[in-house]
Amino acid sequence: MLLQRSVFITGAVQGLGKAFSEALLERGARVCLTDVQAKKGFQVEKELQKKYGKDKCTFLHCDVSSPSRLEDSFKTAVRLFGHIDLVVNNAGIADESQLENMVNVNLLGAIRGSMLGVEHMRTDKGGRGGVIINIASTAGLTPVYFFPFYSAAKFGLVGFHLSCASNPHLKKMGVQFGCLCPAFTDTDMIKIGDNKVLYANEAQQILKQIGINKVETVVEGFLQLIESPNCNGDIITVSNREGIQYKKQGKNKWKSHL
Ligand SMILES: NC(=O)c1ccc[n+]([C@@H]2O[C@H](COP(=O)([O-])OP(=O)(O)OC[C@H]3O[C@@H](n4cnc5c(N)ncnc54)[C@H](O)[C@@H]3O)[C@@H](O)[C@H]2O)c1
């Protein structure tokens, strides 16, 4: 199923985004990697093209907080690949000293990426249908007192995901919405500094207590979601304590991850 997929992914040059991209490339997909980090992006493009083939991936410099840059990148990806059938809104930041940026990137960037995906994929306007995966967080399902802005943006994203997935009109257009909610995962994002979280010492202690996901486990959860024949409305959580949990729409109650 993945073999034919053409993918547009944001925040793809490091951490989870890079790992998701490699997992997709390994399974034969074509991937348009986008990220705000240009230099690193072109290095990663070179590395992955060498490994998977020049026609299999391309990098576009794109800041998801700029609606016009995001739209231009999406158009370029469609021109290069012919079509897109999987959009992964992964770009994110976690810095409690940057409220506006946090909302612009983590919430508005993902919403805009989703809407561009819908416009392109909707079958009633000549599209082929497809899947939109939003990378939220367990902080979008349970409160995190040392990360309130981050948590607010991710709760917003989960709400957007569930609302779109329950929209009968979007269903008819052949567009599915899946959502991945990892808990703390071993990437640069959790290098906690003074500006990143409130009560940094307490945050470090809690992190030690609950443990940290390996990137590979989160990738496994991501693959379960996109390989599902119908992931619409589903949420996968990945936590060190409970592993990968697949929540079908409306069937499970949320548990605390802290
Ligand atoms: N690491 C964790 O503990 C964790 C837990 C839950 C959810 N997440 C989510 O997973 C996603 C990936 O995070 P990660 O852990 O790999 O972190 P990361 O910091 O390693 O990677 C984030 C990527 O997003 C890119 N990015 C940041 N701002 C951008 C912008 N304006 N436009 C485009 N790209 C931008 C960065 O350049 C980077 O490549 C994020 O949405 C994050 O919120 C991470």
UniProtKB/TrEMBL annotation:
InterPro entries: NAD(P)-bd_dom_sf, SDR_fam. Its EC number is 1.1.1.141, 1.1.1.232. GO terms for molecular function: 15-hydroxyicosatetraenoate dehydrogenase activity; 15-hydroxyprostaglandin dehydrogenase (NAD+) activity. It catalyses: (15S)-hydroxy-(5Z,8Z,11Z,13E)-eicosatetraenoate + NAD(+) = 15-oxo-(5Z,8Z,11Z,13E)-eicosatetraenoate + NADH + H(+); 14-hydroxy-(4Z,7Z,10Z,12E,16Z,19Z)-docosahexaenoate + NAD(+) = 14-oxo-(4Z,7Z,10Z,12E,16Z,19Z)-docosahexaenoate + NADH + H(+); resolvin D1 + NAD(+) = 8-oxoresolvin D1 + NADH + H(+); resolvin D2 + NAD(+) = 7-oxoresolvin D2 + NADH + H(+). It holds the Pfam family adh_short. GO terms for cellular component: cytoplasm. Keywords: Oxidoreductase. Catalyzes the NAD-dependent dehydrogenation (oxidation) of a broad array of hydroxylated polyunsaturated fatty acids (mainly eicosanoids and docosanoids, including prostaglandins, lipoxins and resolvins), yielding their corresponding keto (oxo) metabolites. Decreases the levels of the pro-proliferative prostaglandins such as prostaglandin E2 (whose activity is increased in cancer because of an increase in the expression of cyclooxygenase 2) and generates oxo-fatty acid products that can profoundly influence cell function by abrogating pro-inflammatory cytokine expression. Belongs to the short-chain dehydrogenases/reductases (SDR) family. This is 15-hydroxyprostaglandin dehydrogenase [NAD(+)]. It comes from Plakobranchus ocellatus.
